[in-house]
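Input structure tokens:
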């Protein structure tokens, strides 16, 4: 365990206060824009500091239950609008995941359930 200097401790405390101030401002914007605001803020933050959890999530696959629940999600855009993800052609999901880097679609496509269905 490494010991922090007094200056490093002060910097961490000051950084925490600055982050809390920014979070308060963010909450105000989130009330206006909702989930989209947090998604965009996350992308911006990850551009500055690697997000290990997000990076690990990109590599992982969904479990059976999670892929079932995600498969029941409804597409709310594009030519497959209104369809459940389970009803959308795999080729479209793969194209969309590659084009827009959609992590959940990538994880869904890697799930054992979908892999097994694709191999039938």
């Amino acid at each position: 365990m490494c010991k922090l200097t007094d200056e490093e401790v002060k910097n961490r405390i000051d950084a925490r206060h600055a982050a809390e101030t920014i979070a308060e401002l963010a909450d105000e914007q989130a009330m206006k824009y909702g989930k989209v605001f947090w998604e965009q803020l996350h992308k911006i933050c990850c551009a500055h500091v690697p997000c290990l959890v997000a990076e690990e999530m990109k590599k992982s696959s969904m479990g059976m239950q999670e892929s079932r629940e995600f498969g029941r999600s409804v597409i709310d855009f594009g030519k497959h609008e209104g369809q459940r993800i389970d009803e959308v052609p795999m080729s479209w999901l793969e194209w969309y995941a590659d084009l827009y880097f959609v992590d959940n679609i990538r994880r869904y496509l890697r799930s054992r359930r979908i892999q097994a269905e694709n191999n039938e």
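The chain has two domains: 1-49, 51-120. The helical segments are 6-33, 35-48, 52-59, 64-71, 90-100, 103-110, 112-118.
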